[in-house]
């Protein structure tokens, strides 16, 4: 496995989403050099022992991102608002294939010298105007507000915020 990972250590590989999709059990065969017994082969339940470290690393990473947002915005804005804004702007940038190619194929330092900073400023400005326009429309038009609140209800009821973001990318 190490040859296939090209120098990436086993501790750096996230197997959290790995799913066993196919398996085959041959009765009477040897497994790992052990001789078979009369015991019927079976699969044992999956535990989270191997996943715990990956989840802990993910939580630590997310905590570090929130801490960076706290450094940038201070404590007067809620974490939820900071994260929502960061996700909004990042999704706008994700739609830009040039920026995504630069981010995925270069170091942070190289990406910061390319289109990312300029496009991020454009996305931030766009978010400011689109949010102001939407908020003004929602506060002044009861019919629009009722439709929006219905959408919010559905998002909350079905916990579908991430699914909605994914669907909007495909449209």
Report what the structure shows.
With 171 residues, this protein is an all-alpha fold. The protein folds into three domains: 30 residues; 63 residues, no CATH class; 30 residues, no CATH class. The chain is 65% helix and 0% strand. The protein is built from eight helices and no strands. α6 crosses α7. The longest helix is centred in the middle third of the chain and has 25 residues. The protein is extended and about 70 Å long. The model has no long low-confidence stretch (mean pLDDT 76).
Tell me briefly what this model is.
The chain is mostly helical and 171 residues long. The chain folds into three domains: 30 residues; 63 residues, no CATH class; 30 residues, no CATH class.
Descriptive key words:
single chain; 8 helices; 171 residues; 3 domains; mainly alpha
């Amino acid at each position: 496995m190490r040859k296939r990972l090209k120098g990436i250590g086993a501790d750096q590989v996230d197997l959290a989403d790995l799913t066993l999709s196919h398996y085959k059990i041959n009765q009477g065969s040897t497994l790992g050099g052990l001789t078979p017994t009369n015991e019927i082969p079976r699969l044992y339940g999956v535990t989270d022992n191997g996943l715990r470290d990956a989840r802990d690393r993910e939580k630590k990473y997310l905590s570090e991102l929130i801490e960076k947002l706290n450094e940038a915005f201070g404590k007067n804005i809620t974490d939820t608002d900071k994260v929502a804004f960061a996700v909004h702007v990042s999704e706008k940038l994700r739609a830009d294939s040039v920026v995504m190619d630069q981010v995925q194929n270069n170091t942070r330092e190289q990406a910061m010298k390319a289109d990312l900073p300029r496009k991020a400023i454009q996305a931030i400005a766009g978010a400011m105007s689109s949010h102001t326009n939407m908020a003004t429309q929602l506060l002044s038009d009861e019919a629009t507000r009722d439709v929006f609140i219905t959408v919010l209800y559905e998002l909350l009821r079905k916990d579908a915020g991430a699914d909605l973001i994914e669907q909007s990318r495909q449209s």
